[in-house]
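Something for you to look into today, if you have time. Could you write out one complete protein record for me, on any chain you like? Leave the record below and I will have a look.
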Amino acid sequence: MSLSFNIALRYLRAKKGHTAVNIISIISVLGVVVTTAALICVLSVFNGFHDLIKEKLSTVDPDIAITATMGKTIADADSVVRVAQAIPGVEMAMPVVEDNALAIFADYSMPLRLKGVPKDYNRLTGIDSVIVEGDFLLEDEVSRYAVLGVGPAVNLNARAGSLRMLQLYAPQRRGQVDLNDPMNAFTEDSVFVAGIFMVQQKDFDNDMIFAPIDLARELFDYTTEATQVELKLARGASEQAVMDQLNAQLGESYTVKNRMMQQDASFRLVNMEKWITFLLLAFILVIATFNVISTLSLLIIEKDESIRTFRSLGATDKQITRIFVTEGWLIALVGAVAGVALGLVLCLCQQQFGWLKLSARPDAVIVNAYPVVVVWTDVLVVFMLVAAVGLVTSLVTSLMMRRRLNR
């Protein structure tokens, strides 16, 4: 095997007898290098977006959310709150009510999602950190207030501190609609606008507003119900341990979710795009290996005289075949190592300098440059893919070599 390796390495480094063979050899290696580097870079960018989503969710999503497994609401939310607060590691628990409503402000109107929360809800999440105008205030001794996402604020032309009240409407859940007076089919309430927030995430910014939970219950005709109970964990608490205890005490009637599970659709979409792109680039890599097979075919033809010399010296057909199989492996290995190195260098440069921008306007996006996070498992997967392609190339080379030797 050592002799076969040395001869294959010499063939790889030596200048070929024909210019076309040299050019195809260079293209073969570069094809593997570029595709491997592209795989590393693309997977790292998707990892960066995954971490970016996770980071942005931490400001507004609770550590743990409890919902009813069947139905829309939790009938006795306060009892669930008491169970949650008794579990070690839970710092606080609060009920919330979220449903659709219609908002009217002056001459503007829009449907939105109204989330009713307790007045100290800012202690449970980091909503204070994303307030861009006004304050997070839900009620005082004078009135009740709402905090609007930037989307409703723009569409309704509402400003924090305005003396005009925001009108909120929700359809009544009980009774029949009087067609002669359809407005009686709606429950109405009004609040002042205390603040505007921007999470830079469309699920929150586009159509969500926060209001007092008492107002939400009145508007949606609830008493002790809540659509969700949200928890904040104490520092150092084990998320999985708390979730296990909640599942054990609450039973199958309730569903317990952490932050990742609450935004499962977003993370699933990123992962789906990541691996679809991986498969497309892997297909390109397979196509690039056809150049490797072409190179080996030409090399076999060019080395026809050397093959006869090896036979005259006593080399077996198996030993001669092994030389060209090793040659295919070396091309794949050199391309894989160089491609991984190039990909890691490009990812490091993007992390440090941010060469590739998401937009020409930095204020229009969450981050100015493409986020990049290198995960060693991705590097291993890419390397194994190139090795597998190299194996296929070697098997094809072995088949070609055996046919030629049998002539």
